[in-house]
What we know:
Organism: Leptidea sinapis
Number of strands: 5
Strand order of the largest sheet: 1-3-2
Keywords: DNA-binding, Nucleus, Transcription, Transcription regulation
Protein name: Fork-head domain-containing protein
Strand content: 5-15%
Function: Involved in development during embryogenesis.
Oligomer: single chain
GO cellular component, one term: nucleus
Amino acid sequence: MPRPTRESYGDQKPPFSYIALTAMAIWSSPERMLPLSEIYRFITDRFPYYRRNTQRWQNSLRHNLSFNDCFVKVPRRPDRPGKGAYWTLHPQAFDMFENGSLLRRRKRFKLHKGEKDSLNAELAALASFNRAFMARQAGGTPGTAMSGGSMFVTPGAMCSRPSPDLIDGPDTAALLPSGTRPRRAFTIDALLEPEPRSSSPCSPPPPPLQPHYPMPLPAPYILAAQRYHAELLAGLQQSCLPPLWTWRDTSQFSHYTLNS
DNA sequence: CGATGTTTAGTTAACC
DNA sequence: GGTTAACTAAACATCG
């Protein structure tokens, strides 16, 4: 039986699960993360089947995003306002498909409670940073308002303190690779300081993590926000972690695979 | 208000 | 037959 090509799917339902479709969409984007609307667009652009009954499959897709730990909701950067968050893949979920084939999933990806708590704390800190950022910017008092940053937690404190009910292995409380987790306090002031030069233990850094920001002369706040966001994403999508999703044959969407 | 996100629950199919 | 993953439906909350 011949391999199905992108075209041959036509109005037929593609053999991919929603998880696979979503992973495709996310990993085909330059920054490895997309808002919901862009995930929709990726799917409808490539698979005509999903141009019908959008209510049904989009509900299922949203359900999958929320239900599965393999998808991580990253708050929008404050300089990119809009509706909804960005969605990315959890680094530990990269190998959830057998042999990298998106046609077959190895097992359900589930985070332990400690890992989940840790990640949520990290993301909550980011959201908090964003809110403070906006408030501060609205206040128009650069460098003074909200100084001290007592409302923020340091990443170290956040990630190294296991919850009482956490008994798992050594890395359960440290979701993000320790080398790339943000090293400074999650405060605007700290982030406004010049970037400390440190060589990443993993090389080279993936290009998508340094997107260009189409902004006219970013203010220091914007720079701080960008830096913060980049650090978090660098942790989430570490270059040490293997492979990137790709497709071997760009004309055949049936064969998304992992680089090896 | 509509898009987005969360949660629960029922059905189906594949697998051991 | 039990377990698991995928799919679907639906209720509900939140947010811009």
